[in-house]
Amino acid sequence: MLISRKLYVGSTLTDATSVTLADPTGTFGVRRTDTNAVVVASGTAMNHDGTGLYSFNFTDPAPGCRMSTTCASPTPKRPITSRSSTPHPAEGPTS
What we know:
This protein has 95 residues and is mainly β. It has no helices and eleven strands. The protein has strands at residues 2-6, 8-9, 12-13, 20-21, 30-32, 38-40, 44-45, 47-50, 53-57, 67-73, 80-84. The strands form three sheets. Strands 4, 5, 6, 7, 10 and 11 form a six-stranded antiparallel beta sheet that branches. The chain starts with a strand and ends in an 11-residue tail after the last strand.
């Protein structure tokens, strides 16, 4: 399963120092929503694919099952966060 994110500051794609998969409590990177089983550990780094573009690919343990993920990127002034209830490409600015 591929998780892709575009990180923006305003309307400009922007690189971050690092982008990781981590929920706000640091419990998981990706988890199943039916059992809450952790599928990807918290703090797992996403790959840098180009300016403001990040991805992470993993084997889906339960095809068709909904997953929950949060990707976070610290910046000097404020965090840039993108969330999705099912991993898929994020569209449009998020900040």
